[in-house]
Amino acid sequence: MSSLDIVEAERLEASNLFYREPALYDSVQADSDSATVCQALIDQHFPAARTLLDFGCGTGRDLELLAQRFDCAGVDLQPRLAHYARRTHPELDIRVGDMRTVRLGHTADVLTCLGNSLAYVHGNQDVRATFETFAAHAHRDTLLVLCSPVAPIESPSPQQARVETRLGTATVTIAYEWDLRTQINTMRRHWVFDSGEEACDTIRRRILGPRELELYAIHAGFDVVAIIDESGGGGLIGPGAYTVARYQG
Ligand SMILES: C[S@@+](CC[C@H](N)C(=O)[O-])C[C@H]1O[C@@H](n2cnc3c(N)ncnc32)[C@H](O)[C@@H]1O
Asked: Where, if anywhere, are coiled coils annotated (predicted)?
């Protein structure tokens, strides 16, 4: 990794409690269905797929399930998460790399970028570079499956929720900001654990609307074949969506 990548990885790690405590992330996400939804989309659009590359794989929680069906590898910017993923899933091939620049030297039938990982790439040039990375790992008909925010979350006042975690139950207060000029949706969380411990984190996600996703995809040689609401409901209402695109070369 370049020294800039290291700075970026350290900045990300400091920003999010889950990145500082990867096991906490896994425990809170335990009932996520993103790998199941992703697999259903692959079955629908490329049932013969055999190989899969996951960009922004985090703790490897989706790869764990996808690896039961595909020959998988994952890439993440944060060495701490990659180390955790290798330790908890020794069977997985996990690399440290930046999805804007990494080149693994081979292609895969399916490329995934799940759990909003794309939203951590903020600038237009960086988004474009990330789609070029996808193209660099694609062959004709490679399927790209993204799960990303397509609309901001806006809330007039902070919301509170009780969350079960491996560190015990916490009350988390969440506030959102939306900057229309940069299309960054900022989420600020204040965690108060029943033990009395407190933590704060700030997560900044770039929102790419459906038409923007189409444009970045087309520029990189992918045709969007579906954009489906994350909720699984009929219309596209956001905030999250799955985008499925096919590489035309
Ligand atoms: C919200 S997590 C999602 C992780 C995983 N996909 C999941 O669903 O559990 C976002 C991930 O994107 C990674 N990430 C952010 N920017 C990245 C970049 N430029 N290259 C590679 N990974 C990146 C972060 O390190 C983090 O693991």
From this structure: none
